[in-house]
Specification:
It contains eight helices and ten strands. By secondary structure, the protein is an alpha/beta fold. Helices cover about 35% and strands about 25% of the residues.
């Protein structure tokens, strides 16, 4: 049996990251992967980079990491309103100034995807989607689209972040094989109404080997993936949100971003 922890979208929130990593350790999950967006919106992007880098956690490139790492002047984010665009501009300006050139180069060099194998299951870890760094694979995407993307990516299990909402979708690929999509939610900026830090545990093994525990929140049970049993559990972790809010205020980040953090 193989247990994998996935986390993403930390967004400069070091307190949330440390709480999530402590919870991963307490759960006894040794294999850890970051699905990108270490920086942006939060008060300590350099601290987050240093923590993930210092622990040697494999990480995939997020769109915000790319925007800051390559000094593109923007993060490749979608903003639906003028207020959101203004908040985004303030966030980018702060983050760009808080990340020095050495850390920026490390971010820019992150791979766009990580690949794992377990038995016959091919596992893809990336930020947005198999085809685009900043594509939102929202929970309502059609089975047809998701199956096609998995087929094109030669993947049976596709693990993504970016939408800040954890989920597990099981569907059938174009050749009739089972396909799974797992979204890791967000450590530092959830958008599903729960402000606690989020990480996701994926358990893979032979049929009958995987024991499914009751979820903390949203989870799905086991399903056959290329002869391999797979289950997903979403973990939520309380942390010092007030401390992060105070740090955001000291950093001069907008009150609207602070409110969004509290309301998730």
């Amino acid at each position: 049996m193989r247990r994998i922890s996935l986390f993403s979208d930390i967004h400069g929130n070091l307190a949330a990251l440390d709480a999530a990593l402590a919870d991963v350790a307490a759960a006894g999950v040794e294999e850890r992967y970051c699905l990108g967006d270490l920086v942006g919106y939060g008060p300590d992007p350099a601290g987050v980079v240093d923590r993930v880098r210092g622990l040697g956690i494999p990480a995939a490139l997020g769109n915000y990491d790319d925007g800051v790492g390559a000094r593109r002047g923007e993060c490749g984010c979608y903003y639906a309103t003028a207020q959101a665009r203004a908040d985004g501009a303030a966030s980018y300006a702060f983050t760009d100034g808080a990340i020095d050139d050495e850390r920026a180069a490390w971010l820019a060099a992150l791979p766009r995807e990580l690949r794992l194998e377990e038995g016959a299951a091919r596992i893809l870890l990336t930020h947005g989607s198999p085809r685009r760094l900043n594509e939102y694979l929202l929970p309502d995407r059609t089975d047809k689209l998701l199956a096609r993307l998995a087929d094109e990516a030669d993947a049976d299990v596709v693990c993504v972040g970016h939408v800040h909402v954890p989920y597990h979708r099981a569907l059938t690929g174009g050749d009739g094989r089972p396909v799974h999509y797992v979204n890791s939610g967000s450590v530092g900026k959830p958008k599903d109404g729960d402000p606690r830090a989020c990480w996701v545990e994926v358990v893979i093994g032979t049929p009958g080997e995987v024991e499914v525990s009751a979820p903390d929140d949203t989870a799905a049970g086991p399903a056959d993936a290329m002869g391999t049993s797979l289950s997903v559990r979403v973990h939520r972790v309380a942390y010092d949100i007030d401390g992060t809010v105070d740090a955001m205020r000291r950093a001069g980040l907008p009150d609207t971003l602070i409110d969004a953090l509290r309301r998730a």
